[in-house]
Amino acid sequence: MAAEQTFIMIKPDGVQRGLIGEVISRFEKKGFYLKAMKLQNVEKSFAEQHYADLSSKPFFGGLVEYIVSGPVVAMVWEGKSVVATGRKIIGATNPLASEPGTIRGDFAVDIGRNVIHGSDSVENARKEIALWFPEGLAEWSSSQHCWVYE
Ligand code: DAT
Ligand code: MG
After folding, report:
1. Which of 32, 54, 91, 110 lies at a CB distance of 3.0 to 4.6 Å from 79, suitable for a disulfide?
2. Residue 59 C-alpha to ligand 1 middle, in angstroms?
3. Where is the Nucleoside diphosphate kinase-like domain (predicted)?
């Protein structure tokens, strides 16, 4: 069975605030593997597609404006239970409810500036990875794998 993968995006506020290294470091040190990464500005229509499930929400317009307001860092991370564990590393959607020690708990205040996105299910991760990385992922395996995984 292929290893689990998740889609992680550092939002424009995270990029502007110099949190790229901090976010990467937390996933890397945990024992997950970076399989793809790019810094890019996104078109409005692309942001709308990424958040299509939320299109009926009153905050949808503001959310899309925020995502297109500057470059984002799109990534794919791989590892055991990386979808659910990635959500734990990120913390609750509203940063005021995120536990200290999580990315949002440590670095964010407002829900509309919550620094980072992470897929919420394996199925949505698959869809988001296909949307953001149609070119495919890097093929590699870490020489430290046996020191992290039994
Ligand atoms: P998450 O990003 O934790 O998966 P989500 O998918 O429910 O949360 O919503 C996507 C983003 O939309 C979220 O990171 C911030 C914004 N958002 C969610 N609920 C909101 C609300 N009630 N008011 C304003 N923005 C909201
Ligand atoms: Mg979500």
Report:
1. 32
2. 8
3. 3-139
117 counts as catalytic: yes
**Whether CATH 3.30.70.141 fits 5-148:** yes
pTM reported for the whole predicted model: 0.98
**93 assigned ligand-binding residue:** yes
Q: Which tens digit of pLDDT belongs to each residue from 110-145?
A: 999 999 999 999 999 999 999 999 999 999 999 999
ipTM of the modeled complex: 0.98
Q: What is the signed CA dihedral for 22, 82, 47, 60, rounded to 10 degrees?
A: -90
Q: How far apart are CA 92 and CA 42, in angstroms?
A: 24
CB of 65 within 6 A of ligand 1: the answer is: no
SS3 107: helix
The single residue of 42, 117, 119, 125 carrying the catalytic annotation is 117
What is the Å distance from ligand 1's center to 145 Cα? Answer: 34
> Alpha carbon of 98 to those of 27, 28, 105: distances in Å?
17, 21, 4
Spans of all domains in the chain: 5-148
